[in-house]
Amino acid sequence: MSEIEIVAEQGTWRDGFEERVLAGYRAAGCPEPLARALLERAVKGIDGWTVATDGTGWIAVGVTEDDGGVVGRIHDLTVARGREWAERWCAGHGAQRVEVRLTGGRGPGAFADYPVRGQNRMRAVAGEPQLPPGLTVRRLTEEEYPAWYAAEEASYIADIVRAGALTPEQAREKSDRDFAQYLPQGYLTPGHAFYAMEAEGQVIGTGWVNHGFLPGVTFGFSLEVHEEHRGKGYGRAAMAVGEWATRQGGDEAMMFNVFGGNEVAMGLYDSTGFAVLDEYRFRDLR
What we know:
Order of helices and strands: EHHEEEHEEEHHEEEHEHE
Domain N-acetyltransferase: 135-286
Largest sheet: 12 strands, mixed
Radius of gyration: 20 Å
Strand content: 25-35%
Pfam families: Acetyltransf_1
Number of helices: 7
Organism: Streptomyces katrae
Oligomer: single chain
CATH topology of the largest domain: Aminopeptidase
Protein name: GNAT family N-acetyltransferase
Strand order of the largest sheet: 1-2-3-4-5-12-6-11-10-9-8-7
């Protein structure tokens, strides 16, 4: 392998990188406006990335302050055996862990031994999705919201810890920041809707969605079946509720995140046709 050198002029790399990211989103079924909106998110901060080459491919890396520590990010890697250089660069700039985003459901490649931290998934919804027989959906009341919020936050923290990247203390800090960001007005935050799912006279789960999260996309922050009602087929029913809610909000596709370590949920999403838009993997450098 030729010596890897940092480059000052990034135009050639950037054009190719952006086209590869767009191609990944298109392959995952994104219409062009959505693919470009996702690209805009993917290249946030790109002017601050460091780009290097060995003449055969590219490496793009950077570091950010995140979740109480310095995180290295491998944004692009097309150099054979270039991962070691990227990890050394990140460690040399103070990173305690390194993360990578794989776009469009492509395989892990050089990062197969990195644990999965999470995935973004998406699927276009049916024109008129129907709720499953025996299941009714209503809006969560404002009086029910505090108890829902407490349970939702506890579940979110547990998911983050299970994914393996953060300690319980860091996960709680992240949860506090994220909920403040996405629900600044709580129950009355514009664009957000909260649902209770009922069957046989009982609330068997809840839903939280954000309409217009991206062009034509509703983001499903949570479609939760209560533990005592799991194993009864309500998981698929909850996904149907998400699609129904998406159309209620005037959107055409539903998107959501699943944390690493939740193989049961990933299997459900595979079987219901939700494509992987992004997969995030990480490695502890300590």
